[in-house]
Amino acid sequence: MESPIKLLLVQARQDYLPYLLLADETVEIINEYINDGELYAIVYNQQTIGVCLFTFPTPYTVEVKNFAIQPENQGQGLGKRVMSCAFQLYKERGFEDMVVGTANSSIANLAFYQKTGFRMDGIIKDFFARYPEPLYEDGIRALDMIRFRRKLIYERKLDRSIK
């Protein structure tokens, strides 16, 4: 039987900065959003292996602002299990969509989000150009943010009763 993945809401956010830095390499940028939304520690086999920070850009949309799993725990399907937990959590809370953005250079992330059911939704040109130092992944400079969206609720139930 697989060990369960747990998402535990945390309060002492600065304690999780090393995990946040796995997904966003710039402390200055992380400090712009570290106190927003809900930060969860990802716990597997009684060990914290990563974090997931969710923000709420609209009343019905949840955004994956930062999602990171330690490199030694990657490639085992744990990220997909975390996303599945997150989809269920926010669907139960009435959110309709989940969105996420990643760099044009993040080839593994581009594949990951599509494998977990996200669809490309837009591009924010030059998003990463504002970072203090240029970022490179797989030999590609991170300049644009690729936005993804996944529907959590496909149809809002409307009260159509006649009063």
UniProtKB/TrEMBL annotation:
UniProt xrefs under Gene3D superfamilies: 3.40.630.30
Matches recorded under PROSITE patterns: GNAT
Enzyme Commission number(s): 2.3.1.-
N-acetyltransferase domain span: 1-150
One Gene Ontology MF term: acyltransferase activity
Cross-referenced InterPro entries: Acyl_CoA_acyltransferase (IPR016181), GNAT_dom (IPR000182)
CDD domains cross-referenced by the UniProt entry: NAT_SF
UniProt protein name: GNAT family N-acetyltransferase
